[in-house]
Design goal:
By secondary structure, this protein is of the alpha/beta class. The protein is built from ten helices and eleven strands. The strands form three sheets. Strands 4-3-2-5-6 form a five-stranded mixed beta sheet, with helices on both faces. The protein has a four-stranded antiparallel beta sheet with strand order 9-10-8-11. A hairpin with a 4-residue loop joins strand 3 and strand 4. The longest helix is centred in the middle third of the chain and has 12 residues. About 30% of the residues are buried.
């Protein structure tokens, strides 16, 4: 039965002058039994004392364990973990303001490492909205995450091509007509799982299906070894990044883009045919890990 406020919201939206945002509710289980092969996935989010992988700590961990099908349909939530952890040092004031987590909240709290290992043991994929950050924060503390396949819902879904101007979780929710309490780990997990269950706005593809299709594809990190210094602006414009440790520009590509990129480098960077450039191949098993960070 509809709530009276739903009728008011419908009237407002019907004028074309208003948009109504609804509070996001946790994703409900699908009523039907799966009619396809199913797998176990995790949505993971961490809140931390900062962004320094070497010095900062996880102060909150949220995990949603869910069942999904080969089609990308999400059937049900299997388990939930949401725990706080007291860091060695006081929580910086800017982090406390951002997350709403205070020193009093985490006093005496400790994340149950055995519970994390148990909940993650049979997961086929781990999804985070900024996987390079979450993975590198999780792996040193919980080795179970080191050999898992990871996927990034921020950078491995074509949000802009699907009509979204921003890729932050809150922006995407707003585009779908919802809001949530952001910057708390389990709330962000629920928000992300809800987004993964929805079809993309233009193609209609289930969001989880689109993410998994991208995550399954190997990628290649191509190094522009020996590129002339005067070409750095051309490389930056083509989304190359600089590795301070290797003193070299690099770009991450799908495997089928390698020949195109060799052509660009030959024509615009080296001004000659190029062969033998170093390249590293990554899969979801090692992508986003500190093992593949060129400056770690």
């Amino acid at each position: 039965m509809s709530h009276p406020l739903d009728n008011i919201a419908a009237v407002l939206e019907g004028t074309g002058d208003y948009r109504v945002l609804r509070r996001l509710e946790p994703l409900a289980d699908r009523p039907e039994a799966p009619d396809e092969p199913t797998f176990v996935g995790l949505v993971v989010d961490v809140e931390t004392t900062g962004t320094d992988f070497a010095a900062d700590e996880v102060i909150e961990l949220g995990i949603l364990k869910f069942e999904y099908g080969l089609s990308g349909r999400i059937y049900r939530v299997l388990d939930t973990l949401n725990q706080l952890h007291q860091p060695l040092k006081p929580i910086p004031s800017e982090i406390a303001r951002l997350t709403g987590i205070s020193d009093a909240d985490v006093a005496g709290q400790q994340i149950d490492d055995a519970a994390v290992a148990r909940i993650a043991a049979d997961a086929a994929v781990v999804i985070a909205h900024n996987a390079s950050f979450d993975r590198q924060m999780c792996e040193p503390r919980w080795p179970v995450f080191q050999e898992k396949n990871w996927a990034c819902s921020c950078h491995q879904i074509p949000w802009r091509a699907e009509g979204h101007e921003g890729m932050k979780l809150g922006y995407l929710l707003t585009d779908y007509g919802f809001f949530h309490r952001g910057h708390r780990a389990i709330d962000d997990c629920h928000a992300l799982l809800a987004l993964l269950a929805k079809p993309l706005r233009i193609s209609g593809t289930l969001t989880l299906s689109a993410l998994l299709e991208t995550a399954r594809k190997p990628t290649v990190r191509l190094w522009a070894q020996g590129s002339p210094i005067e070409t750095k602006d051309l490389l930056k414009a083509r989304r190359y990044r600089w590795s301070g440790s290797r003193r070299c520009w690099y770009v991450d590509l799908d495997e089928d883009q390698i020949e195109i990129e060799h052509g660009f480098l030959a024509g615009h960077i080296y001004r000659r045919p190029v062969t033998g450039l170093p390249a590293d191949r990554f899969t979801a098993r090692d992508r986003f890990s500190a093992r593949t960070d060129p400056d770690r």
